[in-house]
């Protein structure tokens, strides 16, 4: 199966590869993310999705530096995403948060900086991600995401990021943000796969020129907050049957399901074979196949209701 980068154009004018490598890992082993990024670059990936929360941006930066020095890739060919965590929503924290990520990544700028969640959390330290009160409740802050966004817009002016966007925003929150946004909301990164109903949100974003990026396109069965009622997406009988009929793996089918709709897809893996497999989907994407994927989606309705939105935290 041939592999190549497919691209879409953001409302900010930036070109972004439709398939990227997700780097969210919460049991980071020394060097494993660095090695995964190096393998991905060798395979052909040019889009890497990270976040301050993941605490592995230094590994990403080391891999990028090595591959750039080797002449394998140029900085201008790469699309690097980082995210502003919820404890840095106060205006006086925003720029410093990005500068910390840039230092770890060993970059002068990122291509995209996302607000990781609309919910602000009280700052109690750079490495305190979800501080709790005496009742073990998250210490929510009263800063509104519109104030945080206005500060993020300054990061574009300062050339610290080329585009800005959000993650885990619903329609009502996006509508409020659109009223005050001077910079385009380039991306809304959300969970998306055939077993979660995001059609209304996706349609709204398309209408407003906001590109969708899909995290957890394979369902992320190992995530900590997974419900017992969540389907095992990769092993679902229909997914396996359809993948077999198309001569591809279930993972490839689920990646192609998103990018066939013009949705950026960022599957995560540290396995070299799976990193390559997830990238080799271009042959599955065409206008002719779009109706097929819609039929596939509709056929899943017989397996029960879908969730309509994912949890906001730790993506």
TrEMBL record:
The keyword Translocase does not apply. InterPro entries: AKR (IPR020471), Aldo/ket_reductase_CS (IPR018170), NAD(P)_OxRdtase_dom_sf (IPR036812), NADP_OxRdtase_dom (IPR023210). The record marks 83 as: Lowers pKa of active site Tyr. Residues 19-282 form the NADP-dependent oxidoreductase domain. Substrate binds at residue 116. Transmembrane segments: none annotated. Gene3D superfamilies: NADP-dependent oxidoreductase domain. GO terms for molecular function: oxidoreductase activity. Belongs to the aldo/keto reductase family. This is Alcohol dehydrogenase [NADP(+)] A.
């Amino acid at each position: 199966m041939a592999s190549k980068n497919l691209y879409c154009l953001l409302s900010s004018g930036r070109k972004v590869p439709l398939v990227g490598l997700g780097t969210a890992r919460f049991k980071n082993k020394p060097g494993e993310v660095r090695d995964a990024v190096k393998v991905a670059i060798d395979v052909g990936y040019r889009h890497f999705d990270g976040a301050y929360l993941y605490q592995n941006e230094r590994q990403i930066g080391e891999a990028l530096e090595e591959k750039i020095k080797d002449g394998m890739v140029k900085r201008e060919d790469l699309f690097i995403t980082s995210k502003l965590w919820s404890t840095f929503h106060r205006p006086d924290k925003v720029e410093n948060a990005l500068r910390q990520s840039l230092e770890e990544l060993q970059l002068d700028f990122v291509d995209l900086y996302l607000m990781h969640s609309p919910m602000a959390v009280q700052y109690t330290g750079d490495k305190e991600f979800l501080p709790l009160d005496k009742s073990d409740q998250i210490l929510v802050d009263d800063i509104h995401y519109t104030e945080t966004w206005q500060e993020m817009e300054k990061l574009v002016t300062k050339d610290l990021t080329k585009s800005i966007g959000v993650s885990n925003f619903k329609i009502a929150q996006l509508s409020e943000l659109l009223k005050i946004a001077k910079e385009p909301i380039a991306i809304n990164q959300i969970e998306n796969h055939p077993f979660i109903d995001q059609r209304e949100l996706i349609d709204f974003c398309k209408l407003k020129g906001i590109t969708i990026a899909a995290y957890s396109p394979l369902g992320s069965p190992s995530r900590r907050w997974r419900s017992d009622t969540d389907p095992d997406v990769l092993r679902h009988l229909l997914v396996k049957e359809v993948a077999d009929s198309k001569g591809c793996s279930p993972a490839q089918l689920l990646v192609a399901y998103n990018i066939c709709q013009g949705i950026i897809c960022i599957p995560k893996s540290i396995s070299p074979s799976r990193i390559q497999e997830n990238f080799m989907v271009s042959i599955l994407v065409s206008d002719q196949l779009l109706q097929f994927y819609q039929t596939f989606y509709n056929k899943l309705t017989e397996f029960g209701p879908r969730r309509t939105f994912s949890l906001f935290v730790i993506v």
